[in-house]
# Entry
Amino acid sequence: MRCPFCSSLNNKVIDSRPSRDERSIRRRRHCDDCDRRFTTREAVERLSLQVKKRDGSLEDYDRNKLLAGVRLACTKRPVSVQQLDSVTDQVEAYIHSRATKEVTSREIGERVMAELRALDEVAYVRYASVYRRFEDAGEFTEEVRKLS
# Structure
């Protein structure tokens, strides 16, 4: 591992521990050349995943895009950053558990709605209204009625 301060390769691990979510390892390192410390993270490398959009096009899976959609649905709701990450982690775990390199945007959207429905009904309806492209208030009202 190259030191971010002096670019030396002469360093050693002084402490290792699992991250909070236990999906990666946090390592504290000490550079023998510049005598500074830095942190690295080690995680399992995931296979590249393609998302098939409604129009049939493919794009690379992007966790940040998923998280942004969840965050937008939860704006001004009593949902913590940890809960946002948890929803994103749950959806990610689901799509990566499948043994394929391609997932449809529909599968992702449905999974996000299931997670949001359990977390916050208002966030769920917000996400569903954009995802399902409600055309009028009647469709919106019907979705809210299903929650009761």
